[in-house]
Structures are given as C-alpha cells and as structure tokens.
Amino acid sequence: MASKGKITLWSSDGEVFEVDEVVALELQATKYIIEDGHFDGNIPLSNVTGRILAKVIEYCKKHVEAINSNDKPSEEDLKAWDVEFMKVDQDMLFDLIMAANYLNIKNLLDLTYQTVADMMKGKTAEEIRKIFNIKNDFNPEEEEDVRREIQWGFE
C-alpha cells in the first residue's frame, strides 16, 4: 500500500514507481481511478512499459513543479526544457505518443505531436517516407493522380 500522498504505479513489465499523488493526477487515466476512491494506492498501467512510464513521470513531475513551485520557471524556460525532453529516438517518441494517449495527458500528447510535425515541416513526401520508414504503396500513375488532385500539398 502506498503511503499517504503517494500513489504506486505499476508498469506493464512490472516496474514499480511511487509518485506523489499530485503527479499521478496529471495522468488523467489515473486521476479517474484516484478520484473514484475505490483503489488501494496501487494502479496497474498495462499498456505502458517501465522505460516509457519513467519518462512520462519525469515530464509530469517537471510540469507539476513548474506550476506549484515558489520559484516558477519562466514559460520560455519550461518550453526549452520540453524541447530537450523531446530529444529522443523515434521508438521512444512513438511510445511516448501511445502512452500520452493511453494515460490521457493532453499537454504531453500535444508536445509529442508537435515534435512529429516539426520533423515533417519543410520536407518532401519522399523525405518524410524516409524519416518514418514509410513504404510508398502508390504506383507511378496513382502518385501522379494524387499530385494533380492536391497540387498545393506538394508545393
């Protein structure tokens, strides 16, 4: 059982994380469980591995501290921290997207989506396919038809 003010989160691979309740409340999926009051202080998160949950908790702790601290960082400092936080490999990035979605953490989901959008910005379709390892399943005729239909998308 978690101590007063602490919540124990269990990852899908059995890692255990004891976090302050205020941090656990940042995860909307756990917030509903906590506020319902029918739990023993332990919350299993079956779709999030320990590696990803540790990263999610790091994000939530930083943002909780930023809101609740007497020495609040500036908005620019927090944005700079977010940029550094998102310097991860693609596998981690996509796992963070999945975890943020599953745990319903809107700000983290927005940040991960923005990171993907920034990776695509100014790139051609072929460059995007290469970055994200996407197979082009159009034959040349189909691709030409698409290019004609949405010419603005290729400018």
Overview of this structure, please?
The longest helix has 19 residues, at 50-68. The chain has a three-stranded mixed β-sheet. It is built from eight helices and three strands, in the order ββααβαααααα. It is mainly alpha-helical and 155 residues long. It has helices at residues 21-24, 28-36, 50-68, 75-85, 90-103, 106-120, 125-131, 140-149; strands spanning 6-10, 16-20, 42-44. Helix 3 packs across helix 5 (90-103) and helix 5 packs antiparallel against helix 6.
For the structure shown, list the relevant keywords.
155 residues; mainly alpha; three-stranded mixed beta sheet; 3 strands; 57% helix; 8% strand
Compact description:
The chain is mainly α and 155 residues long. Helix content is 57%, strand content 8%.
Topology:
Layout: E1 6-10, E2 16-20, H1 21-24, H2 28-36, E3 42-44, H3 50-68, H4 75-85, H5 90-103, H6 106-120, H7 125-131, H8 140-149
Parallel strand pairs: 1-3
Antiparallel strand pairs: 1-2
Reported for the largest beta sheet, the result is: 3 strands, mixed
Strand order in the sheet with the most strands: 2-1-3
How many angstroms does the end-to-end distance come to? 58 Å
Residues in helices, as a percent range: 55-70%
List the helices and strands in order: EEHHEHHHHHH
Mean pLDDT: 89
Q: Identify the overall geometry.
A: elongated
Low-pLDDT stretches are none
State the secondary-structure class: mainly alpha
**Rg for CA atoms:** 20 Å
Number of strands: 3
Helical segment tally?
A: 8
